[in-house]
Description:
Order of helices and strands: EEEEEHEH
Radius of gyration: 12 Å
CATH class: Alpha Beta
Distance between the termini: 28 Å
Number of domains: 1
Shape: globular
Largest sheet: 4 strands, antiparallel
Strand order of the largest sheet: 1-2-3-5
CATH superfamily: Gcn5-related N-acetyltransferase (GNAT)
Strand content: 25-35%
CATH topology: Aminopeptidase
Helix content: 25-40%
Amino acid sequence: MEFIFEENRIFCEERGNLLAEITFPALSADTVEIDHTFVDESLRGQGIAGDLMQMAVTVLKNGGKKIKPTCTYAIAWFGKHQNMPGF
Length: 87
């Protein structure tokens, strides 16, 4: 699965169909909000949402951003990965 990285989004498409996505709009110059995660029903249970979270956190941390998780999945993910600072 090949992911596409944009400024406030990481996603995967196949033939124009969205398969997986995480969005993280800016709240300020140094803080973003992870407000949406999506994995197509046909791909659920394979760890793709967790992969998206890890990619987003890595990109955002490397960019010096603080993270505020607001979508249900992101809140739960950060709860399980409390050793990840910055939100």
